[in-house]
Amino acid sequence: MARTSLSRRGFIAASLLAGGGVAFEFALPLGRASAQGRDAAPITAFVRILPDNRVVIGGKNAEIGQGAKTMLPMLIAEELDVAWDSVTVEQTDADATIYGAQSAGGSRTTGREWLPMRQAGGAARAMLLAAAAQEWGVPVASLSSAQGRVIHDASGRSAPYADFAAGAARQTAPDPASLTLKDPSAFQIVGTRVMGVDTPAITQGKPLFGIDVDRPGMLHAVLETCPAVGGRFVSANLDEIRAMPGIEHVVVIEGDGQAESLLDGVAILSKSWWSADQARLALQVEWDTRAVEGYSTQGYAKCAAEALDRGPEKTVLDKGDVASALDGASQRITARYAVPILAHGTLEPQNTTALFTGDAIEIWSPTQNPESGRALVAAALRLEKEAVRIHFTRIGGGFGRRLMGDYMVQAAAIAAKVPGIPVKLLYSRQDEFRRDFFRAGAWHELDAGIDAAGRLTAFRDHYVTFGADGAPSRGAEVAAGIVPANLLADARIEQSLIATNLPTGWLRAPRSNSLGFVLLSFLDEVAQAGGRDLPALLLELLGEEARTIPGSGPREADFQTGRARSVIEKVLVLADWAGRGGLESGRGKGFGFYFSHAGYFAVVVEAQVRDGQVRVPRVWAAGDVGSQIVNPLNAEQQVRGAVIEGLGQALAGQEITQVDGAVEQANFDTHPFMRIDAVPEIEVAFVPSDNGPTGLGEPALPPVVGALVNAVHAATGTRIRKLPLREEDLV
Amino acid sequence: MAIRFTLNGDETTLDVDPAKPLLWTLREDIGLPGTKLGCGAGLCGACTVHVDGVATRSCITPVGLIEGQSVTTIEAAGADPVGRHVVAAWCALDVPQCGYCQAGQIMNATAFLHEVPEPTDADIDAAMAGNLCRCASYTRIRAAIKDAAHKAKEA
């Protein structure tokens, strides 16, 4: 591709070439800087040096609590070679043409940005040194840097970066590939324990989040949609609501029938969100629910059982000869599992502020996926994408919910009814449960064969989930590359689909958060049937010799058996694993290992069961996410958060149920998340490996639920094949 | 209707519907957005403020009920001698992940430490179980409360 230097609007942008490589275009944001009239010279789109030598670094990615707003600027600051305490981080706007990918999803940020962010810092440093070389009349090779200063060793001269900022901004941008980046042994910021850049502001209650956006003349909106998702608007007592005190506008939103963009609704606008929400209590809407009212939890269970009895609609993976291998096995193990529908429950309710001005729209949104939202808003309002301007806010929890742009479209559609007036749409907690994109339910029938020595020889999984026309719904797919199918000569994965009116979506570690429970519990059954220990069974399957098993698709990372072995062996040492037994009655340990989002995690959960109550006193987790943990302070929190979320999915009673197409849960009392009083001690260890760093938001979660139910089995002899775990299952 | 109360140390008079929850009065009428909406039903603690020193769920507290009382919000948490240590510990241990619940956590922890200056783990669990952290920063919340208790005792 053509590399431009000093282009009119400069940027570093990473783009994927047709051949799969990543190329970088690099130049200077001159247009942006002069337009803003700042007293600081911008050096690349990400770096500005202030006259007092403080450094402003742009944090370009969505911050959902995964630490990207701190971690990416750390990478830039490292190669820029400045002291971290001289850095201020600013959230950039959302604009892929300047900043490249800005989404927070799939634990992909670390892997994607590890090199480009360091290059962005290194490029700015190179330009500062080049400017200094010109000013001092010395060769650039004779200069070095430290702590935000340029140093000329030969003369003993040194000066702060700020002295050269203006000169640096006039430099031709270097070819990123020509930059010499630091050897990791020289890192001074990366790998240290760095506090989140917003932590002080958070503890002072500063307005950082989408819900805190305030614009002059802004109206607040609530949006009522059909309790049964997908119901169409027929009529409502709109005039009565319009006449209520404090109500400014009541508008009917005509949807396109797609939950991903816009469903029918009635929006109530007021100067006060509370007044609008109060008026909603009097709103009476007639919905046409004929197309959606047949869906229910009981109906799904019945349809799924019938599908499992009937046999698969489709084969997703077929290796070797599973039928013969199962027939020839010395023992067969068969079981059915069920996984419930779950909600995300981000603590900050969905919201977006929008100002429509006739031919353009300006949006302030806590979004994990701004470009997707931009495209949806542009399509819904029939605008060019360039006419949609998006400001990022900090995000009060994502977990995958905010990868969807529906709430941005809803706010935009409401704002389009009142041009010139900024409108903030905010969901109530009830709206959250009514308009989520849920983790899909799943039903599995598994079949395994073991030989006389208890070794796993054949594996079959017929899974049923939501979907239509042969395609599983969003987040409900099965990866063909899952353990143990990828390690066996004879394995088959089969699929059948049932219909739902619920939109499904990505919940932290999509697919894997459901499969981890099913596969690890079933493998424990297999191990028990053969008189084996689950970790021993898995280590034997992995083999002594490290090998790489290619991922099953372009987005699936290759599976490296050596890395799996390392984390399994590590966690067994941490947990002092001596088999599941050896503990007093009512206590047990369970093991789990899972590979997802390019990360390898093994966990051991200890459970104590008494009178049907499960307590988890301790959890050990060992993970390999590559050669470098960028910010260990945050990384430990990501793992602990994933562990607790996994435990909560099984133990807190989480399950979305439906009657007549409508979700029955409406708040945290009926769809609970784990609280502090159930939280175990969690020991976290990272096992570094000679691989590029990858993300940590998700991969620690999938092994947790399986390890937990295995611990419950060790403690009680009761096998949990259906979540959530209920007291009656254990007494 | 005019309602009078003390807000973060200042006498305040507001003409507001007495049924309006304190949460929305703070956010909409006073312009203090640090107190957050989580559940709207007293189930998650994100909206916790102090009313006469007692941790109170502002999302279900009609503003009319606080006539004549003293309200402290996260914006003034650091002005309280115990709250100052709680805020400092929250930063020192980098408790927040997404950070959305933390105003409520800090306010609840501060009121609790006034009541129980030297808490055990069990005391902390019992006192903090009403405050949901969806990111599950609980391990550090426990540690930060102990750290703050220790520093407050030394002070």
UniProtKB/TrEMBL annotation, chain A:
Domain Aldehyde oxidase/xanthine dehydrogenase a/b hammerhead residue range list: 204-291
Gene3D superfamilies for the chain: Aldehyde oxidase/xanthine dehydrogenase, a/b hammerhead, Aldehyde oxidase/xanthine dehydrogenase, molybdopterin binding domain
Segments forming a coiled coil: none
One Pfam family recorded for the sequence: MoCoBD_1
Protein name, as recorded: Molybdopterin-dependent oxidoreductase
Organism listed in the record: Novosphingobium mangrovi
Automatic annotation (TrEMBL), chain B:
A Pfam family matched in the record: Fer2_2
InterPro entries membership: 2Fe-2S-bd, 2Fe-2S-bd_dom_sf, 2Fe-2S_ferredoxin-like_sf, 2Fe-2S_ferredoxin-type, 2Fe2S_fd_BS, Beta-grasp_dom_sf, Diverse_Oxidoreductases
Domain 2Fe-2S ferredoxin-type, first and last residues per copy: 1-77
UniProt keyword terms in alphabetical order: 2Fe-2S, Iron, Iron-sulfur, Metal-binding, Oxidoreductase
UniProt cross-references to PROSITE patterns, sorted A to Z: 2FE2S_FER_1, 2FE2S_FER_2
Signal peptide: none
Protein name: (2Fe-2S)-binding protein
